[in-house]
Design a protein that fits this description.
single chain; alpha+beta; Muramoyl-pentapeptide Carboxypeptidase, domain 2; six-stranded mixed sheet; about 35% helix
Length: about 150
């Protein structure tokens, strides 16, 4: 099933952790709709502008989200919007800046890395409820902290 011109449901639900642990990562109709909105409004425009992008994490049903240590309120669960992690290595800064400067989103997170390039980019979309929140994830005393992006 295609969610947009270049993004499929299988791409947005693929998980080696789910496969390894035998977790069914099949979305319900509402989750599919949230994923469709994310693809149509963020991922497809990003791909149209920058070319192919690599999604490393899309949908995570709550059981899978717990298995990977995700937040209980993570939009990766597509219960209140949807999220994707994008990893383009050296192009991560370009991906982050393009989203920040050109697209509507709920959350955009510079995930770890250094001041030059994040390790990956997290973006979420929640139709009609987008906050435009921009954060930077850092480790402090062994714990992840989310700081306002400067």
């Amino acid at each position: 099933m295609q969610l947009s011109k270049n993004f499929s449901l299988s791409e947005m639900t693929k998980s080696v952790t789910a496969k390894r642990l035998g977790i069914d990562n099949t979305p319900n109709e509402q989750q599919i709709e949230y994923l469709r909105e994310l693809c149509a409004n963020v991922l497809q425009p990003l791909r149209d502008a920058l070319g192919p992008i690599t999604i490393t994490s899309g949908l995570r049903v709550p059981k899978l989200n717990k298995a990977v240590g995700g937040s209980g309120t993570s939009q990766h669960c597509a219960l209140n919007g949807a999220a994707a992690d994008i990893d383009m290595d050296a192009k991560n800064t370009e991906v982050f800046n393009y989203i920040k400067d050109n697209l509507v989103f709920d959350q955009l997170i510079w995930e770890f890395g250094d001041n030059e390039c994040p390790d990956w980019v997290h973006v979420s979309y929640h139709y009609g409820h987008n906050r435009g929140q921009i954060l930077k994830a850092v480790k402090q005393n062994g714990k992840t902290k989310y700081l306002k992006y400067q």
